[in-house]
Amino acid sequence: MNYIRLKKNNLLVDNISASSLVKKYKTPFYCYSYSQLKKNFYDFVTAFKSIKPIVCFSVKSNPNIALLRELKKMGSGADVVSIGELLKAIKAGINTKKIVFSGVGKTEEEIRKAIEKNILLINIESESEAIQINKISKKMSKITSVGVRLNPNVVGKTNKKISTGSKDDKFGLNFNDCINLCKKINKMKNLKLDGLSVHIGSQITNIKPFKQVLVIINKIIKKSKINFKFIDLGGGMGISYANNEKKLDLNQYAKLVKKFLKKKKSQIIFEPGRSIVGNTSALISKIIYIKKSNKKNLVILDAGMNDLIRPALYKAHHKIIPLKKNNKQILRNIEFVGPICESSDKFLNQKNFSKIYEGDFVAITDVGAYGMSLASNYNTRPKVAEVMVSGSKHKLIKKRQSLESLVNS
Description:
Layout: E1 4-7, E2 10-13, E3 16-17, H1 18-21, E4 29-33, H2 34-47, E5 54-58, H3 65-73, E6 77-80, H4 83-91, E7 99-101, H5 108-116, E8 121-124, H6 127-139, E9 144-150, H7 175-185, E10 191-198, H8 208-224, E11 230-232, H9 250-260, E12 267-270, H10 274-277, E13 281-293, E14 296-301, H11 310-314, E15 320-322, E16 330-337, E17 346-354, E18 361-365, E19 385-390, E20 393-398, H12 403-408
Parallel strand pairs: 4-19, 5-6, 5-12, 6-7, 7-8, 8-9, 9-10, 10-11, 11-12, 14-16
Antiparallel strand pairs: 1-2, 2-3, 4-13, 13-14, 13-18, 15-18, 16-17, 19-20
Helix pairs in contact: 5-6, 7-8, 8-9
């Protein structure tokens, strides 16, 4: 079930009309469905219940602390890529033994904090990083649990800007370098090699690349003769943004992983982000003007690319829905655009759309992942509010940034 949907031509979020929310909150604002968040997380856990993985939510996809607290209650851990994300996850109450720290450029400060907090794994991406972590661990009189990130040279059919598993990408180590580093780490006195990590990208909807990765990991294990305590398979599970777009079949993936684990004592770690929060949110926006231009109608919104950059950055597709749909009249050849002083500040082209007017409201859908987390103050615009709806109740989970604080900062 989708908890953000049209019912009798009115957009509902859980059991609340989105039209009633715009009377309470100033547009634009992000609106989340708690019911959708809960459903997505438990659907994920259920799909993989036979292998009992550690689920570490990818904080970079959405770092709202209220969301993190709710996910913690559901049993989630966290995948972090900065000291800020690490501290947010801890503040949200997430067990440090369910936190993994990834990323190619961890600073000394970040490494120290991760060691100090005794997290589950620091995933190493270079020999220099391994030497640095060992050195810091020695100074702190600690033995640090680490994983090594493999770059399997496997590419999912996804946007090049969110692909991370190609040999040309900056992440991880190739097959031979990965094995060699594992052997070197085993000789380092202050490191404990517990994991093998891999992540090949985001928004992958085809099972084939995940299958290829499992084959390569098997080869790593056989050649290195290392029985890794943890196999971190990352995230990347795609969702459906358009009507004709499929999402990854998690049950099919689970069967592959279960087969892979036969005769192994490793525990699987997953780092889902988009598949947990992607469809939990809509960006609610007001139509400022409708302008005729070159045989099309420009629908100018009060939300801009600073609020949602994915269409400009990735050419991402997000459906747009009127808060009140008009079935009788149609507006043709329209383009939804924002107010930012950039030609790339546009969201969607539509040949036909429900008749809308200046002052009406629309919802840009499926923005829960990499929506607010990529928001900026470009054009000196305040970051928008975030609202959570649960059943028939709603609450502010992040205040709109004040113009005064922005101008004075």
